[in-house]
Design goal:
Layout: E1 7-12, H1 26-43, H2 48-54, E2 56-67, E3 76-87, E4 90-98, E5 104-116, E6 121-122, H3 127-134
Antiparallel strand pairs: 1-3, 2-5, 3-4, 4-5, 5-6
Length: about 140
């Protein structure tokens, strides 16, 4: 059972996302997923200003993307983001990219680490950062 709320980010596929085949380039999916993560943490009060002030952010340790359906120019998409699990310093996050028809066009699994920018090492996230990522602090962390 997932104890953390899902975040939804809606956007439009634009010309900059396309490759020479006229559909979204594979690297652009990572850009879209990054936008969705920033929107999620910013909406929860932990934007770039807080990252700079607190000197704590996340780093991507691993990602896996599964491409399932083609996305085309000017298509409206929704990226649903949720935390699957948090284990001490490591956050397991899932994105579902949904097309206009409501079908999943791509799935992504990210392994993130909470990163101290001063010490340059992974740390256990504090309750403020947990709220930014997961929507609320978790008792099981």
């Amino acid at each position: 059972m997932n104890q953390w709320p899902q975040h939804e980010y809606r956007t439009l596929i634009r010309e900059r996302h396309l490759d020479t085949f006229g559909h979204v380039n594979n690297a652009q999916y990572l850009v879209l997923f990054e936008e969705a993560r920033w929107e999620m943490i910013t909406s929860r009060g932990y934007g770039i200003d807080q990252v700079h002030a607190r000197q704590v952010g996340t780093v991507v340790l691993e990602c896996k993307v599964r491409f399932m359906r083609e996305l085309k120019l000017r298509e409206e998409i929704t990226i649903r983001t949720r935390i699957r699990e948090i284990r001490k310093k490591i956050i397991f996050l899932v994105h579902d990219l949904v097309n206009e028809s409501g079908e999943i066009a791509a799935e992504a699994e990210f392994t993130l680490g909470c990163f101290d920018l001063r010490e340059r090492k992974l740390i256990t996230p504090d309750p403020f950062w947990l709220n930014a990522l997961a929507g609320k602090p978790s008792e099981s962390v």
